[in-house]
Amino acid sequence: VQLVESGGGLVQSGGSLRLSCATSGFTFSNYAMSWVRQAPGKGLEWVSSIGDSDVFPPYADSEKGRFTISRDKHKKTLYLQRNSPKSGDTAVYYCREGGDRGKGTQVTVSS
């Protein structure tokens, strides 16, 4: 399993944030995926998840509705969108499938 996050960096508060996670080594379309994050000095925090089903509508369960998760099964890529990020969103963001996660991408939100 390989998970490679990208799209982080310095983001202005009130701007826009879009992260990507390129996947390989497993059948992406068969698995639910998640984003988690770790802020400085804190533990891992769940952000959002998306289901795998093509039979039932895939679910997108965002933390307090502030994030939008999506997936492109043809590109085997997971996405996370956050409009108007705040300083509290500063963290390393990881995509996760089961017990596996990538190396993360650092997001720093400046005011």
What characteristics describe this protein?
mainly beta, four-stranded antiparallel sheet, 111 residues, 0% helix
Structure description:
0% of the residues lie in helices and 55% in strands. Strands 2, 4, 5, 6, 9, 10 and 11 form a 7-stranded mixed β-sheet that branches. A 4-stranded antiparallel β-sheet has the order 1-3-8-7, with no helix packed on it. It has strands spanning 2-6, 9-12, 16-24, 33-38, 44-50, 60-62, 68-72, 77-83, 91-97, 100-101, 105-110. The model has no long low-confidence stretch (mean pLDDT 89).
Give me the Rg, rounded. 13 Å
Main beta-sheet annotation: 7 strands, mixed
* DSSP strand content: over 45%
For the termini, the CA-CA separation is 36 Å
Q: Given the helix and strand composition, which structural class is it? A: mainly beta
Helix content: under 10%
Element string (H = helix, E = strand): EEEEEEEEEEE
Shape: globular
Write down the overall mean pLDDT.
89
Annotation, overall tally of beta strands: 11
H/I helix tally: 0
Which parts are unreliable, with pLDDT below 50 for 5 consecutive residues or more? Answer: none
Summary, kept brief:
The protein has strands at 2-6, 9-12, 16-24, 33-38, 44-50, 60-62, 68-72, 77-83, 91-97, 100-101, 105-110.
